[in-house]
Amino acid sequence: MKRLDLIVSERELESVIKALDEAGAPGYSVIRPVTGRGPDTYVTEGMDFSGLGANAHVIVFCEIEVLEKLRVSINPILNYYGGVAYVAEASPL
Amino acid sequence: MKRLDLIVSERELESVIKALDEAGAPGYSVIRPVTGRGPDTYVTEGMDFSGLGANAHVIVFCEIEVLEKLRVSINPILNYYGGVAYVAEASPL
Amino acid sequence: MKRLDLIVSERELESVIKALDEAGAPGYSVIRPVTGRGPDTYVTEGMDFSGLGANAHVIVFCEIEVLEKLRVSINPILNYYGGVAYVAEASPL
Amino acid sequence: MITATATALDAGLVLANVLSPKVLFFFLGAIAVLLNADLEIPAPLPKLFSLYLLMAVGFRGGMALAKDGLGGQVIITIAVSVLMAAVIPLICFCILRLRFDVFNAAAISATYGSISAVTFIAAESFLQAQNISYDGFMVAPLALMESPAIIVGLVLVRLGSRQARPGSDGMNWRKVLHESMLNGYVYLIAGSLVIGFIASIYSPAGVEKMEPFVYKFFYGVLCFFLLDMGIVAAQRFKDLKKAGAFLIFFAILMPMFNALIGGLVARALGLGYGNALLFIILCSSASYIAVPTAMRMTVPEANPRYYISSALGLTFPFNHTIGIPLYMGLVYKLIPASI
Amino acid sequence: MITATATALDAGLVLANVLSPKVLFFFLGAIAVLLNADLEIPAPLPKLFSLYLLMAVGFRGGMALAKDGLGGQVIITIAVSVLMAAVIPLICFCILRLRFDVFNAAAISATYGSISAVTFIAAESFLQAQNISYDGFMVAPLALMESPAIIVGLVLVRLGSRQARPGSDGMNWRKVLHESMLNGYVYLIAGSLVIGFIASIYSPAGVEKMEPFVYKFFYGVLCFFLLDMGIVAAQRFKDLKKAGAFLIFFAILMPMFNALIGGLVARALGLGYGNALLFIILCSSASYIAVPTAMRMTVPEANPRYYISSALGLTFPFNHTIGIPLYMGLVYKLIPASI
Amino acid sequence: MITATATALDAGLVLANVLSPKVLFFFLGAIAVLLNADLEIPAPLPKLFSLYLLMAVGFRGGMALAKDGLGGQVIITIAVSVLMAAVIPLICFCILRLRFDVFNAAAISATYGSISAVTFIAAESFLQAQNISYDGFMVAPLALMESPAIIVGLVLVRLGSRQARPGSDGMNWRKVLHESMLNGYVYLIAGSLVIGFIASIYSPAGVEKMEPFVYKFFYGVLCFFLLDMGIVAAQRFKDLKKAGAFLIFFAILMPMFNALIGGLVARALGLGYGNALLFIILCSSASYIAVPTAMRMTVPEANPRYYISSALGLTFPFNHTIGIPLYMGLVYKLIPASI
Ligand SMILES: Nc1ncnc2c1ncn2[C@@H]1O[C@H](COP(=O)(O)O)[C@@H](O)[C@H]1O
Ligand SMILES: Nc1ncnc2c1ncn2[C@@H]1O[C@H](COP(=O)(O)O)[C@@H](O)[C@H]1O
Ligand SMILES: Nc1ncnc2c1ncn2[C@@H]1O[C@H](COP(=O)(O)O)[C@@H](O)[C@H]1O
Ligand code: NA
Ligand code: NA
Ligand code: NA
């Protein structure tokens, strides 16, 4: 099994989840709000009041085939709007 | 060292932590609320007001022996009530 | 690429982030509040009202060279104040 | 002739209720979901509102109890309401077994045996707006009706399911009782009631300082909370549609039937207009607090989609909009005016 | 002579405004950032305050609308304010293009075309403190000025950027309209306005129970919220400094220029003192709610550092401290006293 | 004879205090922990309450200060209270060294040198309920007593620990001073005090609008907060039991001893009944806000279990229930009635 960690803006969460559903991910978990920094962006809780929100952390445990599909649907979102996605190994307890 | 990621309902958190203590886990961290979806369940923040709560994410860094014990105590909880548990490699910084 | 998971008290978050910046981490994400237990400490949300806070979980995806520098700057903080840091493999989606 | 007047009255009551701020905010939340508007009340704000509402309603109940005393109808009314919490699940169970397995039928039944504190609060607001008096002791069943409903639900599971269940060996009744009686919300409302009672007697200065908090602020928080409940209910209603027509009918007809039973019992108890409405609400509303939590723990075989969605997605909105004024109409028909 | 009086007046107004609790709490937050004090108002508390403020200001507006009716200047004033939300971005765009690319210029322009609800609320408080009357209908533009500003912003991007953009193939105008009109906050203020209006007519008892919540409690929450806004604005101001002098000047001079236009239009519309000030605030304030959210989605090429930091880091504090009394001085000069 | 009356008086005072809503809600929280009820007030709600309480108490203090002025006993009383924050840790240290190492003894001492804002607030409420007047300036020490206590604590560590400590090379006194004076809560209470003072003079209209927020709402939030504190204190009490009998005795006897010193000083200062009680509370209460935070940073060798649990798990509940009325009895004995 694989483990995918996605960190995206809360604003893109909906489209990321749609992509997960369409790629056949067996499930996912979402943690928010997440703050952070990228190479040239900076996200704090400060904009919470405005609805702009902060980031969300999405964890997906899935087979490698699902990742292939996600690569196609999610990478463009990350490239356009920002965010990171990393894959690691994971095995059920 | 191993890293165990557990995602369970907040309602089962207490019994999961009890199992961790009994298995001799050197420590653990808990993040909540966590929302998410499994193959046929769906957990949102919406029931927050009701005390039913959402999910919790438990991270445990431990030796492999602890995992052996946890397999016995935690897997039945996950099978009966739902939730996921995945293991990965991890080494101290 | 490597994935570094840090769990430290919210009180040390600022100095940890400073260390990340100085070590040239390309970015990081922060989740809080996190509760948990170590070998002989116990952190709950209960002290939230007091400003003492709970823990924070910091995730860093970075090259191994950054980890070398962090080992020097962050390990002393963890040794003095507590907290854990674990490294794992990760590859971009 | 009388019927015509009563019906006309009902329509006026429905309008007065539906166009009150609290119900309009509920709709605002529900419509946000339908239009997919990006309106969200993030955790733990809804919890803040529900803690506040339970604390305030308990405290107010305690104050009223201290003023009115425990004589007359008080003890008997409370006792009968606890009885209703055990009887109603039995009726529900018989109906639900037509379509559902034992586990789901029992879990839904327990939900309908118990009560919705917010529906009760809304009914109090309605009575205040209509200038109809009621007694503070009617709050007490809010803290007492969860446990019997849960216990009856579990007995039904026990009797109904033949094979042994994994979790049920030497099934920890203690854990169940604990969960049902020491659920945080049940505990808070009961505790606030006791505090309101004690403080009214021994600390009038403290009570006076508490009053702006529990009175002036109350209705606004109720509106805020109902805004959130509108969102949740509309989301749950989507779920409910998947569960099929039977449960949809059940979630509307059962409260009405329970209201009728409640009305008849209220009449037998000799309750006045206000108390009778509140008694009916206790019977017809369904729990989405302690019971689902207890069911999740003790009957995980049941699908929360069924028992939560029916209570929240339909019974709750129904009672808040049409139910309360409808039951008021019922009260006018059943209860002799002289009381 | 008249100028001297007016200027003296301004200084008094500035002082009265700057030394009011709301502005002082704003400073307290800002100074905390400068001194690096460990003061933090964690999520989602600021959201609680902003939800409450929008709900209350909408409800109060609806109540006033129900009392005053929709006759006279109402419709025309609302229509013109919507027009201003489209015209102001065009002016801003021309100026911003001197230094910024199309994407950033358009995003900042949209921000300044729209409004800041909290600045509006602060201006209302200011008028109340000065005992100057204003009309409830002035709240309506708060819900109506976001969409035109966003749409004009996007049209500018379309016209200005020659090459095709990845996200813009068959660019989903529907999505944009949805985002701009069904933004949670816009929806909440509009919905609360409608509820306040309906309930005032059909549920006076409900409105009465709502009053302590929307009135008594209001100013304190505003102070609490401004404490947070002081923190955020000071953090954003640090960002703004990196963006350079041009944007800093823009973030102060543009609101003043927009205020002047607004003042002239208000005079042409024949608005009274109070309404004229609120109209000017609609023109001169910049959005940090719906517009940045929409811009992030539709013009990700633009750097949020520019459009959020200019609106929040400078225009917002400027308007709250000096702007409001300054514009009041402008109103006294432009508007004939007889109205 | 006089003693008998005084003792009888004490019992009445204890009852009046213990049966007030605020103390009863504290018990409700504590009992929830004992019964393992599932009652939880999730983060950041307790922070919301504490921010509000500090903001309101500071603002009210500022208002009172503006009314009463800075003459007479004001400056001297404030100065002496700051002195007490430095003297009390020295006494505590000598006692604690009997059982604890330098680090823990110093950290606990600093805790007891500083103050508990919520205990102070509760004492104000108690005085109001007893119709005993007090002065607004007594709030000022709340913002001034943290720093001296922290500094004395660190000096004790320096003097007491012989070997060099890792963090202490060129030990950043600047960082320590920053942490102690610009702690978020200390900053907020001081800032709100200044705002209340300034606004009272220059913005009476603003202050008037602030009043419902800081007065009417106050006691209810205090109860809500004390419900949470009851939960936290009971959890901490479990910790404290592990720490042994010495610390348990210390956590009850030390506040009483400090109260006695405080009472004698209050008498020497010629304070009236109300001010004397508040002065005693400043002496006898222990900090769980700025001091633990500073100790964690500067004396990580000390175990938080000791210094947090003693202050929160026992001293806090003791002062809230028995302490306040007990000290009032002390005031009646020590202070001549004529004042
Ligand atoms: N190297 C990284 N490690 C962990 N999180 C990151 C990293 N880079 C970016 N992020 C997260 O992804 C968000 C978006 O980053 P960006 O794509 O640079 O705008 C940031 O706000 C961080 O929360
Ligand atoms: N494949 C998955 N990846 C990540 N989280 C999951 C996955 N499956 C389930 N979860 C989480 O575990 C919770 C319980 O899932 P379940 O066991 O299917 O009821 C869900 O609500 C998710 O938060
Ligand atoms: N083995 C572990 N696994 C996961 N989290 C841990 C572990 N040990 C400690 N932690 C986290 O790190 C925090 C500080 O631990 P300590 O360094 O033991 O004081 C704890 O409160 C936990 O949140
Ligand atoms: Na019921
Ligand atoms: Na504008
Ligand atoms: Na003290």
From TrEMBL, chains A, B, C:
GO terms for biological process, alphabetical: regulation of nitrogen utilization
One GO molecular-function entry: enzyme regulator activity
A Pfam family the protein falls into: P-II
Name assigned to this protein: Transcriptional regulator
Organism of provenance: Prochlorococcus marinus (strain MIT 9313)
From TrEMBL, chains D, E, F:
Entry keyword set: Membrane, Transmembrane, Transmembrane helix
Xref: Pfam families: Sbt_1
Transmembrane feature ranges: 19-37, 72-96, 103-122, 142-161, 182-202, 214-234, 246-266, 272-294, 306-328
PANTHER family per record: SLR1512 PROTEIN
Protein name listed in UniProt: Putative sodium-dependent bicarbonate transporter
Species name: Prochlorococcus marinus (strain MIT 9313)
Gene name for this UniProt entry: sbtA
